[in-house]
Amino acid sequence: MSVDIAAKKQKIVTSQAEERIDWKKRKAELKETQKQRKEAKLLKQLEKQRREEAAEKERLDQRQTNKGRASTVSVAVPGSVLDNAQSPELRTYLAGQIARACVVFCVDEIIVFDEDGEDLKSVEGEFKGVGAVFTESQFKEGYDVTIGTSERGNNLDKATVPPFKHLLVVFGGLQGLEASVDADQNLDVTDPSVLFDLYLNTCPSQGSRTIRTEEAILVSMSGLRPKIEAAFSDASTGSPDSQ
């Protein structure tokens, strides 16, 4: 009899202990479930925030794309750059190289002038010599910043490009920009640098005696790109250098 009572008591104690263990386990499971729910809710909120930020960025980018640039960049090259090409196919290829370089650097206008001062035809009209590039601009107000490129120019690394509305970069032919200016009978100047706001050597300490025009475009626009970006960055932030 006493054995049965003791066994029953032991069974009750064991059952209560198991219930306590089950409750602790259940409580831990509930706590873990709540934690997972909170984490899932937080992740959902973060994902929603990320989508909203991405959508806002896309709207801003689209607005900027639709607005377009307020400034333009024009490049002028002499027709003689094709003289070294020995066949129509090579001339076509060379012209394509120049066009491709201008596209890469977001050039808005390409002007081809005749170094001999003869008629030049392009979508902008007819010009005679390099001087007409300045005087017969398609822009009503003309080019407010002009850059000439020459190995006799100032070091590009030390130059600063001011903010502009219409920028013109002029390249010379096989004999350089000086020869293009000398050949224009309408220009009465002995120093080509006086025609430009900036007269720059875009490849100082060059390793070759001459640089082809198609090479000069790539080198020059690569060097000018950060200068152009800095010009508008300084203007927007009100830097003293931009005043």
Automatic annotation (TrEMBL):
InterPro entries: Alpha/beta_knot_MTases (IPR029028), Put_MeTrfase-C9orf114-like (IPR003750), tRNA_m1G_MTases_N (IPR029026). Residues 41-64 have a biased composition (Basic and acidic residues). It holds the Pfam family Methyltrn_RNA_3. It comes from the Eukaryota. SUPFAM superfamilies: alpha/beta knot. One of its GO terms (biological process) is miRNA processing. Residues 41-73 are annotated as: Disordered. One of its GO terms (cellular component) is kinetochore. One of its GO terms (molecular function) is miRNA binding. PANTHER family: CLASS IV SAM-BINDING METHYLTRANSFERASE-RELATED, METHYLTRANSFERASE C9ORF114-RELATED. Belongs to the class IV-like SAM-binding methyltransferase superfamily. This is SPOUT domain containing methyltransferase 1.
